[in-house]
Design brief:
single chain; mainly alpha; about 95% helix
Length: about 130
């Protein structure tokens, strides 16, 4: 799931939560307003419903906070794993390059010694041919 999808999902959950809270408040207010009760009873019922709704909102906010924290930790952990993999790959590539460059150096050194020996032999043969 990419970042845009995650953001859309969180935003969608946020809108759903807002809708539930607003719907609960409107439903409770409508039920209380249409019920035949005295002003004191109505205010008491409204206060209880608002308090219950506020508690439920706090509970939902805490759950959402926990989920976001878990998501952030998960993303951080994933980023650390990716960084570790990149470092390992870089070390492997560096080691391979170092090994191969050492092999090339050694082969070049060997070939230059062989060429020097060949030149020396050719010079000796040429000198011997000139003397004879």
């Amino acid at each position: 799931m990419n970042k845009e999808e995650t953001n859309a999902q969180i935003q969608g959950n946020s809108n759903l939560t807002k809708g539930i809270v607003i719907g609960a408040l409107l439903g409770a207010a409508a039920a209380l307003l249409f019920a035949p009760k005295s002003g004191r009873e109505l205010r008491s019922d409204l206060s209880e419903k608002i308090s219950a709704t506020a508690d439920k909102s706090k509970e939902i906010a805490n759950i959402t906070k926990d989920k976001v924290t878990d998501l952030a930790n998960s993303v951080g952990s994933g980023a650390s794993q990716v960084m570790s993999s990149v470092k390992e790959a870089a070390a492997d590539v560096s080691g391979t390059i170092s090994e191969e460059s050492t092999k090339v150096f050694d082969k070049t050194k060997q070939l230059s010694h062989e060429a020097a020996n060949e030149v020396e032999k050719t010079a000796e043969n040429a000198t011997r041919d000139l003397k004879s």
